[in-house]
């Protein structure tokens, strides 16, 4: 073996190496592609697979894929609780300990068949067991196919907020079959599409033109339209991730509407989807950007048009949410950054404000409170006229 020449020995001098760890995952995408799955799996080396899903997803589609795998490889079926209920420590602990009892090894693979929640709990378990074993994501929801699988962020919720505990752990591959999206509940499908609308607002105005032509509030799509919609939303997020896979610098713009959204989602205690909460958050963020003189009234209206008229997220904010609660929830959620509450602010449609080289902008909290107050008053008015 040829040794690299040693670096010069200078006590006190720091030299910089790199772990060279950036690791993108193959992302297989198509419509009705199940028959190809085992061919792809054949190229990986493993001893057994633990196939995780929710009972109703197993009945709908999982069964077929599970049997295809089990015909050729040792494959064990595991169920997790439906939806967000699986993203808690007791489920994580049970999942990890159960796998150890059942003989999971460093060569085993976990497979997550389901929405973003199944992907998150299984991805986190895979990241923890023996300090990280392989896993495969088979997302069945719009959020899973176009958003959560592209981030490598695995997490469970804490007692005071969402996704407080987690790791970055990338799947060995992602298998995205848009056939599954047909039966996804409307609110869940809208929750995935809203992030695509967000991507248009923050980075590509022309993407909003495309969404305007394809979206409809009844979510009526042909197989081909649904395939294309998922594909285009994936590309819209990848365009942003290409510039900053860490989501810490430019990629932070993906948090548009999320400062308000996370607080609303938390106040709703599981009764509102992440995407619907973000849809409210984007509307408030638009009102804030208008107040700051960054965008026009027409730009604010475009938010309401895309979110309410085109996507069908059109119910008012639940009446019990008050300005004080929302402000307090934002302050509590913000503990994780250890900084002021900051916001992604639009400069124009398709571009975010970046004063002093930072896409997270500090805004006077009195002004934020005023905007939240006005927004909540407008929502109360909508409740009154729809009563
Ligand atoms: N890691 C990330 O960067 C990231 C990004 C976005 C969202 N997330 C997380 O993802 C979760 C939301 O994901 P989600 O919207 O997929 O929620 P989900 O997993 O709860 O799925 C929503 C509902 O749809 C059902 N469902 C899923 N696919 C279906 C199908 N094909 N047919 C019928 N029903 C189906 C599920 O059973 C569930 O009841 C949240 O916990 C969020 O924190 C993570």
What would you note in describing this structure?
The chain is an alpha/beta fold. It folds into two domains: 27-183, Rossmann fold (3-Layer(aba) Sandwich); 197-386, Dehydroquinate synthase-like, alpha domain. The chain is built from 13 helices and twelve strands. The strands form four sheets. The chain has a six-stranded parallel beta sheet, sandwiched between helices. It has a two-stranded antiparallel ribbon with strand order 6-7. Keywords: Cobalt, Lyase, Membrane, Metal-binding, NAD, Transmembrane, Transmembrane helix. InterPro entries: Dehydroquinate_synthase, DHQ_synth_fam, DHQS/DOIS_N, DHQS_C. The chain crosses the membrane at residues 109-130. Residues 192-335 form the 3-dehydroquinate synthase C-terminal domain. This is 3-dehydroquinate synthase.
Write the layout of secondary structure elements.
Layout lengths: L26 E4 L6 H5 L7 E5 L1 H16 L4 E5 L9 H13 L7 E6 L1 H13 L5 E6 L2 H5 L6 E4 L8 E4 L4 E5 L8 H18 L1 H10 L8 H21 L14 H10 L6 H18 L5 H14 L12 H11 L8 E2 L2 E3 L2 E2 L8 E2 L2 H22 L1
Parallel strand pairs: 1-8, 2-3, 2-4, 4-5, 5-8
Antiparallel strand pairs: 6-7, 9-12, 10-11
Cofactor: NAD(+); Co(2+)
GO molecular function, one term: metal ion binding
Keywords: Cobalt, Lyase, Membrane, Metal-binding, NAD, Transmembrane, Transmembrane helix
CATH class of the largest domain: Mainly Alpha
- What is the helix content? 40-55%
Tell me the β content.
Answer: 5-15%
Shape: globular
Rg estimate, integer Å: 22 Å
Mean of pLDDT: 92
Question: Quaternary arrangement of the chains shown?
Answer: single chain
Uncertain spans: none
Report, as a whole number of angstroms, the end-to-end distance. Answer: 79 Å
Q: SS-based structural class?
A: alpha/beta
Number of strands: 12
Small-molecule binders: nicotinamide-adenine-dinucleotide
